[in-house]
């Protein structure tokens, strides 16, 4: 499934096993009227997280570290796949 949404939280829809795109207000009207939206194919980025974590380190700490390393626009235009053992947190 693909979701488009004029909302800054669109990227959280990946939790539903979807591809999610944040779009502008004029594009929202286009989608509502046509049920279509032409998009360029994003590049792929896999972030592999591994190693031993301290007990006090949580998922949010790990993702904040990833964001710090990438920077504000470090993954703009990418689909991101998280890999590794991070889900065992």
UniProtKB/TrEMBL annotation:
It holds the Pfam family Aconitase. GO terms for biological process: L-leucine biosynthetic process. It comes from Nitritalea halalkaliphila LW7. Keywords: 4Fe-4S, Amino-acid biosynthesis, Branched-chain amino acid biosynthesis, Iron, Iron-sulfur, Leucine biosynthesis, Lyase, Metal-binding. This is 3-isopropylmalate dehydratase. It is an enzyme of class 4 (lyase). Transmembrane segments: none annotated. One of its GO terms (molecular function) is metal ion binding. Its cofactor is [4Fe-4S] cluster. It catalyses: (2R,3S)-3-isopropylmalate = (2S)-2-isopropylmalate. Its EC number is 4.2.1.33. Residues 1-84 form the Aconitase/3-isopropylmalate dehydratase large subunit alpha/beta/alpha domain. Catalyzes the isomerization between 2-isopropylmalate and 3-isopropylmalate, via the formation of 2-isopropylmaleate. Pathway: Amino-acid biosynthesis; L-leucine biosynthesis; L-leucine from 3-methyl-2-oxobutanoate: step 2/4.
